[in-house]
Design brief:
1 helix, alpha+beta, 5-stranded mixed beta sheet, Conserved Hypothetical Protein Mth637, Chain: A, 70 residues
Length: 70
């Protein structure tokens, strides 16, 4: 299953919010987007939220990402 993610790095809090109209998610994380640290933190948070394996398929250097759940 593929899911769209809008990432907000370097935030003061960590949370996940589902956007109703298009079944995508907005994710706020504290990690800064340097050397892939934000992507690693995003994967860790999404694994905990969905309780499934998570893999980024598109948007490695963008705030708009597409992830695949398995």
């Amino acid at each position: 299953m593929k899911v769209k993610i809008k990432l907000h790095p370097n935030s003061s809090q960590e949370k996940i919010k589902e956007v109703e109209k298009d079944k995508s998610y907005e994710v706020w994380i504290k990690e800064k987007p340097i050397d892939g640290k934000a992507n690693k933190e995003l994967i860790k948070i999404l694994k905990k939220h969905f309780k499934k394996d998570v893999k980024i398929t598109s948007g490695f250097t963008s705030r708009d990402k597409i992830i695949e759940l398995s």
